[in-house]
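User: structure tokens for this one?
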Amino acid sequence: MSRLLPAIILTLFLLLPSGCAPSPDEDAAPASVASSEAAFSVVVFSRTDGYRHASIDDGLALLRTLGQQHSFRVQATEDPERLTGRYLSEADVVVFLNTSETVFDTDAQREQFRAFVEAGGGFVGVHAAADTEYDWPWYGQLVGAYFDGHPAVQEARLDVVDDGHPSTAHLPNPWVRTDEWYSYRDVQEGLTVLLNLDEDTYDLEDTPAMGDEHPIAWYHTVGEGRSWYTGLGHTADAYTEEAFQEHLLGGLRWAAGQEE
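Assistant:
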């Protein structure tokens, strides 16, 4: 019998269905909600080629929790190949969670992601999503602006410009909080600004000033798709802040077309 045991084990291994073990590039953690029960499906992308935010894990943990609480499915990856047609076929929203610099490997990946959005997919950009894909003009149009510097983390005042959106309806006005405050360049036309940053309430240091109109959260449409961006979300503490959690949840729901 001892001589037969290795052969039996090998036979059983060969009979296992292919793909039963996750590849290193796949999300090893379980999705928040089964796809059959989910109101919508979210893919969180957090690849970095430049600065990597320590708060990425905190952001992912929050998104998983929100998915469990509000019945949407969450999967995560740092593999750009999973942002192509094959893997996006069941996704409703892609979240770029503090991505940085060049995060796609090929133009084919970029074009398939673009097709997903323009055909009606949702996009949510968090903080450093604006510090991403500088050499791809369409991406700058998708996010709505590119990063142009920041001072040290500090408290500042945000004015709620649009209090009718699901990502801002719950917020106090003004909203005073602590974060890393971005200035932006190449701000696109056609953005609906949700939050405006009051530059008189914090020290810009050497960061380029934007003046009285300093958007820090906004939304717009791209083709048939929906794009929502927030410049908030640098610190780990942000993801434990109830007002920010509701802000992010409202953005997700809007991008998925589930704002009611």
